[in-house]
Amino acid sequence: MLCIYLLQHTDRFHCCWYPEFSILCGIEYWIPVQPRRLPEYWKEGLGKFTPHGSLIRESMRPFALFHMNYKMAGIQKKLYTTKIVVVGAGELALSFLEHLIFSPSCWYLGYKSITLISQGGIPNKFEEKYETFVKMMMVSSDRYNEEYLGKLSLETWVDIAVGTVTSIDRKQKFLLVDEEYDFDFDYLFLFCGTQFTIPQSVAELVTNKECRVVVDEIKGVEIKHSNRPENLFTINSDQDAFYTLMNLKEKFDKTEFDRDTKIVIYGHCLNALACIAGLLEFGIKSSFFVLVEPATCPSENIDYAYNTPVYNSLKATLQSCQIEAYYHYSFSSYETEETVVTHEINITKVHFQSQNRVISFKALALISFEPKTINYVTRLALQKACLTFDGKLVIDSDFLTNDKNIYGAGSLTRYKKKYYCDHYNHENYSSHEIGAEIAYRFQKRIQMEESGKSYLSEKRSVTEFTHPIVVTCKLPGGWNYLHVTKPGPMAFLQTIASKKPWGKVLETGSAFDRQGPGYFRIIINQCQLVCDILCFTTNKIDVHNMICLYNKHESLLNQLLLRWKGDLISDLYIYFKEPWAYALYHDRFPLFMEEIQTFYLNMIEDEQVTFYEAVAYCFNVCKWQKISEKDKELVEDLFNYIPELKTAIEKKVKEFLDYNENQLTTYMTTSKLEGYLKLYKHSRLYDTENMARGRLPLVPTQPDYIVPTPGNRKELEDRMKERPMSQIIFEVPSDMDKGSNNTLSPLTSVDSIVPKEITYVPGDASKDIPYLNIDIDKLCYYDEKSNSQ
User: Fold this and answer.
1) In what order do the strands lie in the sheet with 519-524?
2) Rounded average pLDDT over 502-517
3) What distance in Å separates the CA atoms of residue 470 and residue 590, rounded to the nearest whole number?
4) Which residues are in the CFAP61 dimerisation domain (predicted)?
5) CB neighbours (10 Å) of residue 603?
6) Fewer CB atoms near the end CB (10 Å): N or C, the chain?
7) Quick one: pLDDT at residue 449?
8) Confidence (pTM)
9) In the structure, what pLDDT confidence band is assigned to residue 126 with cuts at 50, 70 and 90?
10) How far apart are CA 542 and CA 740, in angstroms?
């Protein structure tokens, strides 16, 4: 069979001197290969057990892979000409496009007309000297990083347009971008979400009125886009971060700017701190920064804002970096000034207020992360299109608006009130999982409508998403932050812990020690499942590995609770880097667990029930509370009573490790066991035939050797006559001929044999048999000729 693979490198630089890559003609008929995520290996700890270099190539440029063979070439691939337009380029939109293009049916179905519209396009790669700083200023889930997007090569399948949707014509099925470009659509997907917007300014600052508070509450007037000051920035994408970085660089390159001015950063979220970390790394002095946090906190940041160890550590870090920080202040107003030559409007002074105080700063720039709302232009476009809008775009359980050809999802939307499910709103759930679900349902709809069936007539309930919410970023002081938590509305840890029954919180390290391993918190719920992971350290965090730990039972984590109770775990970072854990980090492990679960659905012989039903019956007797020890023993006896179930699971585990042996190098597999047995039969360590060639004997082939003593002289002489000399451990006497290349002189007596308890093992033996139970440090042989050990 002939198989052809096409490697397409994508240099996705946002610079005019880097030409765009060319696309092969007829590429739509090839089969795109979805990239896989490898476990992040601890090379220092694993050593020689780290996978081979051909599997891990850190310096290799990311590339997209396409496949074609005789079988696929003989199948007619159907390409839909349906015009699909996606608005937004966040994680939800990228997830939708990934699962639409790389679906299981991609080898016989495809789409020719997909358009993505976004203010900044898809995440770009910038010049190397700015790339690190731009990425540090962003908070993300690290799902669609630069390397992964390079392997997807979405530009091959998607037309990208940069701009903002200003009008939607539902009747004619087209939309306007920036009031200039129009795009036709058959299906429209609105994934634009919410963004950080310009803070509202008050009409007048009252300072001379005597009252109990310093400033009266004055309603704000929303700033029009055309009147936006040049030094007012909001960062919603990497393009915004790059634009902010270049503007600040231009201001600092000027020698006439006021040294007393400040870069004011307003917001109570991780995005504000990540922005400070990126600008500090860029080289801006910490004395230029002022952080102002409002009293209110967004729901998605509730754990960061009130997690005492992490929050207090960040406060101490800001103080040590000499960054001014003010807490519980809300934005009041700012003063502007227009330049005579360029007619640019710039902010000169910013005012904030608390319950009893007003503070003001001379502003070089204002970077706002408050409030986070729907874009004003987008909101007007939705309302003028007569799409149902109740503070947010209203959708049904199929993610459809009141127009059956327009989908909506993400923080832009909310469900219809008839579902009574405000807690299921999408801002509380994983965007990646939502995008995958919409892609699956859309493909199902296309195929059903093509076959003449009605997809919209089916009634469905609101989907309950289960994937975790992941937040990762770089914070001031060199701290790395990762939070993996369960989906749904956030709540205080103290509130959750007050509910009974409750699980356990495991913590190691300190959030204040930069030289130490770092702070690690893992929460195990009452079902002994991992429901929350928080990492705060100056060392590199294995983000993908930590995400894989979510929703795993503690027994899968090498009996975590038992070891914790025995004080055997001092550092959770090192614990989860140990060799036993890498099967959990494999991308096929969830599918493997699903296959294991199917075994429990088989009927038990002579019982006419499944194992699931037997366990459910025990919980039903206990009224779904903690199962009693007596019932627990009955379930364990039932499992041991079914040898076929246990054997099938063991066989499946063995097949999983054998099939993924190239990545799971720390486990004993069938091929390694066969190699060990082959080594036992043919290696110089055990092969007695080497003795006939005059080679130096290494270790005995039988453990029942006899150490020469005056009392067993005759027995030893008889043993020497019965079997070869290599089966006795001995030391070469000093009077042996050294010039015969390690050959042995004939021995007729045991007088010159000196017993020796240790033997030599060649250095390559441990590579072939990594699980050989031998203490290598004790197995050595001193060769006087080579003076080496």
Assistant:
1) 469-475, 479-485, 530-537, 519-524, 504-508
2) 91
3) 18
4) 464-584
5) 11
6) N
7) 86
8) 0.81
9) confident
10) 55
Residues 6+ apart with CB under 8 A from 557: 530, 549, 576, 581, 584
- pLDDT value at position 403? 94
Residue 110 CB coordination number (10 Å): 20
**Position 622 pLDDT exceeds 90:** no
Q: Are 188 and 128 in contact (CB under 8 A)?
A: no
The count of residues in the chain is 789
**pLDDT interval class at 488 (50, 70, 90):** confident
Shortest CA distance to 195 belongs to which of 361, 376, 63, 328?
Answer: 376
pLDDT score for 123 = 80
The residue to which tokens 């918190």 are assigned: 521
Residue 442 burial class via C-beta count within 10 angstroms: exposed 0-12, middle 13-18, buried 19 and up: buried
Q: Cβ(337)–Cβ(345) under 8 Å?
A: yes
Cα torsion through 676, 680, 685, 687, rounded to 10: -150
Structure tokens given for 599? 């075994």
The helix or strand, by DSSP H or E, that contains position 280, with its residue range, turns out to be helix 270-282
Reading the block at residue 716, the tokens are 């030893």
Q: 448, 469 in Cβ contact below 8 A?
A: no
The pair of structure tokens assigned to 260 is 């007393």
Residue 29 DSSP one-character state: G
**255 pLDDT more than 80:** no
Residue 213 has pLDDT above 80, yes or no: no
Q: Which residue has the higher pLDDT, 128 or 212?
A: 128
If one counts every other C-beta atom within 10 angstroms of the C-beta of residue 742, the result is 12
What is the arithmetic mean of pLDDT over 221-249? 81
DSSP per-residue letters across 696-727: PP-S-SSS------GGGHHHHHHHHHHS-GGG
Contact 534, 457 (CB under 8 A): no
Q: How does residue 736 score in pLDDT terms, banded at 50, 70 and 90?
A: very low
Q: Tell me the sheet residues that pair with 372.
A: 196
pLDDT (average), residues 445-471:
85
Distance CA 410, CA 399 (A): 10
Tokens encoding 195: 């963004």
Give me Rg for the CA atoms of the chain.
Answer: 34
Residue 783 is predicted with a pLDDT of 38
Q: Which two tokens stand for residue 512?
A: 């204040």
Q: What is the dihedral of CA 709, 715, 716, 720, to 10 degrees?
A: 170
Query: Coil, helix or strand for 457?
Result: coil
Neighbours of 67 (CB within 10 A): 14
Tokens standing for residue 305 = 């804002």
Domains of the chain (ranges, CATH numbers): 1-193+381-457 (3.50.50.60), 225-373 (3.50.50.60), 469-585 (3.30.390), 590-659 (no CATH), 682-778 (no CATH)
Distance CA 338, CA 688 (A): 94
Tokens of 641: 């009573």
What mean pLDDT is reported for the chain? 79
Contact 111, 101 (CB under 8 A): yes
What is the C-alpha to C-alpha distance for residues 725 and 543, in angstroms, rounded to an integer? 57
